[in-house]
Amino acid sequence: MATAMIASQALLCNHSFAVIQPYALTSSLSPFRLCRPQQPMLSPSISTTTPFSPSPIRRNFSLTRRSARRKPTLVDSAGFSDEGDSDVRRVLQILLWAAEAVYILWLFLLPYAPGDPVWAISSETVNSLVGLSLNFFLILPAMNSVGIRLIDAPVLQPMSEGLFNFVIAWTLMFAPLLFTDRKRDRYSGSLDLLWGLQMFLTNTFLIPYMAIRLNEASKDSAPQPQSKLGSLMTNRAPVVGLIGGAACIISIIWSFFGRADGNFGGVTERWEFLIQYLSTERLAYAFIWDICLYTVFQPWLIGENLQNVKECKVGLVSSLRFVPVVGLIVYLLFLKLDEEL
């Protein structure tokens, strides 16, 4: 009986020996020890699991879930990508074109907004606009103050000068942003001309650009070469940001404290003048519209062009882009050079 059991066990061992890899056996093992279940040898590419580590299948499943939860890229998270919802883009375009119609009708043609429409503009408004243009960035008053009098600067209410130069300085800083916009090629016109007209009529031309850049990208369109003005604005973007930012700060200070000897009153009197100015002058009323629209367009454009920012400053620019003027200054300060773009 014992002999039969030993013989059957030997047969089982021989059968296991045929299945198990040859290198799992050694000459020192007895036939009885060979009958112990053997651990199959794993290939070098698969690591042995332990009770405290997940199995390879579970690890692969975990990696798959993590890759599925991958954070969207900067372009996808910041705005509408080229593969985005076409219905959403179409609705935005409709809203932008409607805003353009309202902007032109309400601010230029209809008589219901404060001040005079374009077709009934008064000589007083024209003289004020000419005087504000001569005092662009307060350069002429600064020259007069140090004795340089090529032409005398018009003496205007500092609050009106400050509001004018604040909006113009903000418009200046939009130039490098437009010239580095990743969707600028969808606008077939000249960006040089568009920005030049924007300096005079602000959102009259920026609103259509924002609508046109939402068009679907054409497969046959090739990137247009950068113009000389575009290259200059891109390569000197930090300088443009510093000049525009300084002009905005100086404009605010000038509004409340400029021409202190000109009998324009203190802070309270100037604030009261601003309220009256906005409610009676069409130009000032339009500037409030421009400030509101710039507050929307600035984070929109910056958010869709974060790939133009230096990698180490993307988080900072993304956070500050919603702050009027400040976000644009930061974008320009940390913009990649034209060669890098």
UniProtKB/TrEMBL annotation:
Keywords noted in UniProt: Membrane, Transmembrane, Transmembrane helix
Residue ranges of the TM segments: 94-113, 125-143, 163-181, 193-212, 237-257, 283-302, 314-335
Signal peptide: none
Keyword Hydrolase set for record: no
Keyword Transmembrane helix: yes
Record-linked PANTHER family: TRANSMEMBRANE PROTEIN
Protein name per its UniProtKB record: Transmembrane protein
Source organism per UniProt: Citrullus colocynthis (colocynth)
